[in-house]
Amino acid sequence: MWKLISDVVGEQKYWPDLKHVKILSRNGDSVEREASISRGPLGDAKSTHTFTTDSHEKSTTVKFTKGPLIGTRKIRLIPVSNSQTRIDVNWHIEMPGVPAFALGFARDTLSRGTEKALAQIAADAEEAAEVLHN
Q1: 40-91: per-residue pLDDT in tens?
Q2: Number of domains observed in the structure of the chain
Q3: Contact (CB, 8 A) for 44 and 38
Q4: Range of the domain at 28
Q5: pTM across the whole model
Q6: What is the 3-state secondary structure (H, E, C) of 75-133?
Q7: Left if phi > 0, otherwise alpha if psi is -120 to 50, otherwise beta: which for 90?
Q8: Are 18 and 24 contacting, i.e. CB atoms less than 8 angstroms apart?
Q9: Sign of the CA dihedral 111, 114, 116, 119?
């Protein structure tokens, strides 16, 4: 599962609102990138992020530094048993680039997107585990 969440390029598979990712620089476990983020009927917006992996904690942190979202998203893998892992996703963001009338819609979209991402990560992890056991 770690391989799935720590892939800076493959992350787009799980977060479909993240489009046109361009790597700006790499520094150890951190990657600075620029991306277009879908904002629904408001169109796409440019965003700059720093994606950092922590293999000891089994976590990734995306720091949104420029764009419609400012703040962080942290994903952490927590072993529950030998065959189960819980995925925690914590968002700490502000949305200065989102008009006030659209904040509720933006929060709902973020929540639904997170649920879909977690479901797809779980499905891909189960599929990979099945392949290993066969």
Answers
A1: 677 788 999 999 999 999 999 999 999 988 999 999 999 998 878 899 999 9
A2: 1
A3: yes
A4: 2-133
A5: 0.87
A6: EEEEECCCCCEEEEEEEEEECCCCCHHHHHHHHHHHHHHHHHHHHHHHHHHHHHHHHHH
A7: beta
A8: no
A9: negative
Q: Which long-range contacts (CB under 8 A, 24 or more apart) does 11-17 make?
A: 11/51, 13/120, 14/116, 14/117, 14/120, 14/121, 15/113, 15/117, 16/113, 16/116, 17/109, 17/113
SS3 41: helix
Q: With beta carbons less than 8 A apart as the criterion, state whether 62 and 70 touch.
A: no
Q: Which two tokens stand for residue 18?
A: 């993240």
Q: Which helix (H) or strand (E) holds 51?
A: strand 44-54
Tokens of 103: 């904040």
CATH number at residue 33: 3.30.530.20
Residue with tokens 């680039």: 97
Q: For residue 19, what are the contacts with CB-CB under 8 A and spacing of at least 6?
A: 12, 35, 36, 37, 38, 44
